[in-house]
Design a protein that fits this description.
It is built from twelve helices and 15 strands. By secondary structure, it is of the alpha/beta class. The N and C termini lie close together (8 Å).
């Protein structure tokens, strides 16, 4: 068994390889070529524990994640955890992977796959609302989905936007980075908008004229009481795209609109189903679109398998003897 650090994970695979693996996992999901129990979600004293197992034909794995919202007060990341990848035939552990790094890269890849298939082909600008860890990775991987020229960043704390800009400048030096002074400014300048916050209330204005004609990626809302999108956006949508069916039970950005009849159940479709039906994408890319992701263990297993195989080829990781 080997242990793979964040540096190992980033060295093992290219961004395009990760996007392809995540897209392939969406096909696996639609073909039901997996076994994935509902993830164990435990809330205790404001903190969250997630236990996420999944089996595929040739591997299985379990991710253990903790979310402690007050950790930044002690300079500790909100998200911590570890991923265990096993051989499907023997159950033998193959690798331990850094949980936060895996989560960050595969979640950003999910968002980037939606940009790859739903955003306008001429997209050159992306707006990021929420300058945290996921905001960084979403912006970075979005640059592999489209030929971006500009990234606009907004956060309630301006110093976080500046820190994110500095970090992004090292991985996408060819892209112009801008600190938006308001969400309205960000919307006016961006063709794709990615929300990566833990807000309980919509972070975008309830104004259709500012929202129309864009592709939105919702990453932050992973609980029923969390919302990032206002009512106005749902008036503009023909279809709401999701990464997995259980998103309908987990995210307030889906629960509230369905409960209030802002959208109908038949308007909701997994991105994998859209891809597997092989319908023409050109028309969708001209519409206002929303992709809502809450993640699933299948993404982790498929991403981990790719990372492990590439790491072995490149001699990465620290061997662990059990």
């Amino acid at each position: 068994m080997i242990y793979l650090t964040e540096k190992d994970i980033l060295k093992a695979v290219s961004i395009d390889e990760m996007l392809d693996a995540i897209e392939a996992s969406m096909y696996i999901y639609e073909r039901k070529e997996f076994c994935m129990p509902q993830r164990l979600h435990v809330d205790h004293k404001g903190n969250t524990l997630l236990l996420m197992p999944c089996f595929t034909k040739d591997s299985f794995g379990t991710k253990l994640v903790t979310l402690f919202p007050r950790n930044p007060e002690n300079n500790i990341p909100v998200l911590n955890g570890i991923m265990v990848l096993n051989d499907a035939q023997t159950g033998v552990p193959l690798a331990l992977l850094n949980g936060p790094a895996l989560t960050a890269i595969r979640t950003a890849a999910v968002g980037a796959v939606s940009i790859r298939h739903l955003a306008a082909e001429d997209t050159q600008s992306v707006g990021i609302v929420g300058a945290g860890v996921q905001g960084f990775h979403q912006a970075w991987l979005a640059c592999s989905a489209r030929n971006l020229m500009d990234i606009f960043i907004f956060d309630l704390y301006p110093e976080k936007s500046l820190a994110l800009m500095e970090k992004l400048s090292k991985v996408v030096p060819h892209v112009k980075l801008h600190q938006a002074t308001s969400v309205e400014e960000l919307l006016e300048e961006s063709q794709v908008v990615i929300t990566a916050t833990t807000s309980l209330e919509p972070v975008l204005p309830d104004k259709e004229e500012l929202l129309a004609g864009k592709h939105f990626v919702g990453i932050g809302s992973y609980k029923p009481n969390m919302r990032e999108f206002p009512k106005a956006i749902f008036n503009l949508l023909k279809t709401v795209f999701i990464d997995t069916d259980h998103a309908l039970e987990e995210s307030g950005d889906l629960i509230v609109p369905l409960r209030n009849n802002w959208i109908r159940q038949e308007q909701v479709m997994t991105l994998g189903r859209f891809l597997i039906e092989n319908k023409p994408h050109d028309e969708v890319k001209e519409e206002t679109t929303l992709f809502k992701s809450v993640g699933m263990a299948l993404f982790d297993v498929c991403a981990s398998k790719l990372i492990y195989e590439k790491a072995i080829q490149k001699g990465l990781g620290q061997k662990i003897i059990l």
